[in-house]
Amino acid sequence: xxxxxxxxxxxxxxxxxxxxxxxxxxxxxxxxxxxxxxxxxxxxxxxxxxxxxxxxxxxxxxxxxxxxxxxxxxxxxxxxxxxxxxxxxxxxxxxxxxxxxxxxxxxxxxxxxxxxxxxxxxxxxxxxxxxxxxxxxxxxxxxxxxxxxxxxxxxxxxxxxxxxxxxxxxxxxxxxxxx
Length: 179
Known about the structure:
By secondary structure, the chain is an alpha+beta fold. It has helices at 21-30, 54-69, 80-88, 113-117, 148-154, 167-177; strands spanning 2-8, 34-39, 44-49, 75-79, 102-107, 128-132, 135-139, 162-166. It comes from Archangium lansingense.
């Protein structure tokens, strides 16, 4: 059995791609997943599956969501242990002191280095970011809402599927996965 965290990209934002969490939980239970729980309305689900191949789980979820809701949703998946490692690997200090200023962008894969190198960090100061594995950690001292960097990191520029969560959500997902 594997414990997973599914991060759905771009749902329930501005009235678009509405996915009620109760309906998502039912859908996931219908796929045979157990201990299903959701966090917030932004597409965060924690569950247990007999399937140990993450690619198969992603494919199952994306197919079932498209069939159930009538639109495509990209799913980025991490195991419980991968999520714990993400929290531990944070290279930017101070996340616990100002969690609303920190964002973790979860990527479907490691981006090609040339794509990341094309982003000039000096152009976005005082915002900063670091890539560690399949995650981009970013700090936004003036807030995420006004940041041009946040838009760059969560867009399609990196050539992989991104979905971002603030530090509070990331740590709460691990707590939920540990229940």
